[in-house]
Amino acid sequence: MARGDGLLNHDILPFEKGPQDECGVFGVWAPGEDVAKLAYYGLYALQHRGQESAGIATSDGERINVYKDMGLVSQVFDENTLNAMTGHIAVGHCRYSTTGVNKWANAQPTLGPTTSGTVALAHNGNLTNSKMLARMVTDRHGNFPAGEIAQGNTTDTALVTSLLNDPASTSLEDTALELLPQIRGAFCFVFMNESTLYAARDPQGVRPLVLGRLERGWVVASEQAALATVGASVIREIEPGEFIAIDSHGIRSTRFAEAKPAGCVFEYVYLARPDATINGRSVYESRVEMGRQLARENHADADIVIPVPESGTPAAIGYAEESGIPFTHGFVKNAYVGRTFIQPSETLRNLGIKLKLNALESVIRGKRVVVVDDSIVRGNTQRAVVRMLREAGAAEVHIKISSPPVKWPCFYGIDFATRAELIANGAAVDQIATSIGADSLAYISEDGMIGATQQPRERLCTACFTGVYPIELPDSEDLGKDLLERAPARSGCEPGPDAELGAHLTPADQVPADQVPADHAQASA
After folding, report:
1. For position 396, what pLDDT does the model report?
2. Cα distances (angstroms) measured from residue 297 to each of 293, 316, 328, 486
3. Average pLDDT over residues 192-218
4. Residue 138 dihedral angles phi and psi, to the nearest 5°
5. Is there a binding annotation on residue 264?
6. Where is region (Disordered) located (predicted)?
7. CATH superfamily, domain at 9-262+479-523
8. Range with lowest mean pLDDT among 78-82, 269-273, 360-364, 411-415
9. Is domain 281-334+345-458 annotated with CATH 3.30.56.10?
10. Which residues are catalytic?
11. Is there a binding annotation on residue 34?
């Protein structure tokens, strides 16, 4: 599913799946504040990171309540629901699935028992040793573990939630610090028990996670935009390999692993909001500089430069600045088209891109056009864009891409097409240009892209472009979105007899019916 908020370019073709980040996470510890609404607005700012489901957990010091459902943040929550979720701690999540299918039972935050209470956990990233973690769950809890795994949850997040319940430990914090060094892959965890907010970031820092300060509390979130939205000031990024805890005694930090930075370069190219800052570098400025470098490397004789809305815009601005070719908007986008649940007829499907995007014929006709986009996955979007420009009377169409060819899958939290579907794997650049109908096609160089981020090459993950993975991968049969949904012998974790209980909770498990629609909620005991 493409980005469902309708803001960015890879959703402009119905059913065209672009690169997807797994999730956005948000946590707040703030006595005296309306933490549920803070979490709601924080997730709203992170909606671009996942649109399949959303959830919030709150704690009043004695009880944790979780409310989650399928859909966008604005579709899942309303005023009555948020007013019913009282407390001083909240954890929020918006999901795009990269481990476990898109279903209600896999929505987050996950809820589970611990020896000292309850834990609610939200996760952004993707773990690479899920099979080992599943065996650990079986070793510790047997073939029929409690919690969300027994209710049909098939995510790596549920495995971690289960492993945070250690009968040999009396402290959730001690359990987490023992568990975290054993987890491999990309993870930003934000979780809580009844009294404390926790956050942890993997040793490579693949996904972003930032710490902010409220007048009466603290916030952690995937991106700075969420902090700004709720009025929190940015303190710093959570460091790779760092674990923090926030409670009535303040904030404390523990190093659980040596930092080996390998931040995802695709956050700078496309995933993060333009107003994000990652490792001291503005994402917007990085994208503008990618456009400038693209113009230096790949000049074109043209009359105008236009972006594919919206994520191509900063790079198009940079390309125009460097090349001296005027920047303009060549498309009008329908701001009210989000996810399309109603299946179009064949006739309407053939219209494709025009549902969400239309070319400005008065701007395009007779012009030699440079079109700037952030990436090419299958090529379908660019093919449709070129066709529209031709129909609008463009004399020439030159496609410029502000990232190198995507040739490899991501196992750290981005859901690309399969390697076989990636157009750059099956054709040379001139062949791709012919395939999409463009007069020319050019990509930025790998060095040019990395230089625009102002990050040392050795501190970035470029696996989707280079095939070099900074975190060791297991055998191919132990990877995949459906790993934990295969035969029990493979995952090491067999769902119990109540595998679908999560979608049909009994009244005893629910928040009071006059407060929250019961079939979408969970509560701690």
Report:
1. 98
2. 6, 14, 21, 47
3. 97
4. -65, -45
5. yes
6. 485-525
7. Aminohydrolase, N-terminal nucleophile (Ntn) domain (3.60.20.10)
8. 411-415
9. no
10. 23
11. no
